[in-house]
Amino acid sequence: MIKTSTSTLTIADSHRLLREKQISPTELVSLFIDQIDKVDPQVKAWVRVEKAQAVERAKALEMKMKDPDELPPLFAIPYGAKDIMYTKGIPTEGGSLVNKGFIPDRNAKVIEKLQNSGAILLGKTTTTEFANWGGPPETRNPWNLNHTPGGSSSGSAAAVAGGMAMLSLGTQTAGSLSRPAAYNGLTVLKATYGRISKAGVIPASWSLDHIGAFTRTVEDTVLVYNEISGPDPDDSATWTLPKQNLRIQEQRGYTVGVVIDDYFQDTDAEVKRTMEEAIREFERMGFTITYIRLPDSLEAANAAHHIVMKSEVAHFHEEEFLKDASRFGFFLQEFIRDGLQIKANDYLKAQRIRTVFRQEVSDLFKQVDLLLTAATPTPAPEGILATGSPAFNLPFTNAGVPTLTLPAGYTKNSNLPMAIQLIAAPLEEQKLIDAGYLFQKQTDWHLNIPEILK
After folding, report:
1. What are the backbone angles phi and psi of residue 408, rounded to the nearest 5°?
2. Which domain holds residue 401?
3. Can you give the pTM of this predicted structure?
4. What family is reported (predicted)?
């Protein structure tokens, strides 16, 4: 086995090493298990690690390696999954006493697809209670253990940033993919609503939830997205059209609309500096930069998001909540109580507001190919009692449009990651990939690793 480090190893690198027989599936998995043993006592990204099962699967995969040139892109790639995703025979507790000891008899569709691709599940990662606001786990940010890794996909982001997995599945209902990616120096694609099946994933809010995967690079993001996206008869919200074949290609002819609403200007000085540098980089790459504002319905749409989310959270948990509310954490109890008070008419009105906002956001792309904002108002906040603001992510989750979060800088004193967020029209993931891949060819922010891994 060649000498390599999990801290910098990408999916694309690993695929090449496996194909050239410079590393075996068992050796690859063992590297990541060793890294978990070394790093996770500090970071606390994992709820449980299935070491024996992962090694057994790696051994079984080795027996199937007949023609290395025909290995699937995710063959033997170690990954983690947020603990709201059903894993057959492995507890799925969602960070809540309500699900304590629950063991599913089936896999979530995304888990099933990864298993079919040859990927190896290492275990389950931490989440806020049922992926809702409040009740954060003890997970730490690998870049600075005194700071939050973000949430609700706390453990999934921290596991990849800590070199403990090459990819990890998460979800987003407001900002739970984009924000942790930004705080942890990672790349993440939040695809168009319905592009990735939610079947077998405990919902936070079924009309808002998105599934995605944290990786180090845009190239890796494409490899994962191609495996987990596509229509699913078990999820009626998925698109019933052929899976898009994303290619990695350069595109310098796009017009990028920098969002200049006051809403997106409320950032700290270092985030503002990062945005200015990113804009200059896109100009150097040959993109046309213009400036644009979001629809006036933004404020009403944000309010509608909260109504819809609270209503749907309350509806899903109502039966268990009425049985024994004390099993839920304090924050989720309050959330559910609020949701149970929302009238059907208010819920339907909120959904109509969302529909208008979605159309108005989509119409912006008649003027530009992409939108650009900072991914978060600030770097990762200090402490772990809160997971940071999803304000810059929520509007685009609400609209169901695809976004790509890219590392774009680090704070000068604390060396915390900062990121930008690209947004495209519905089903235009390819434009995000084109721009993001070129950005990562011209910059090296995504190549840095936390100090604790050096």
Report:
1. -145, 10
2. 11-296+359-453
3. 0.97
4. Belongs to the amidase family.
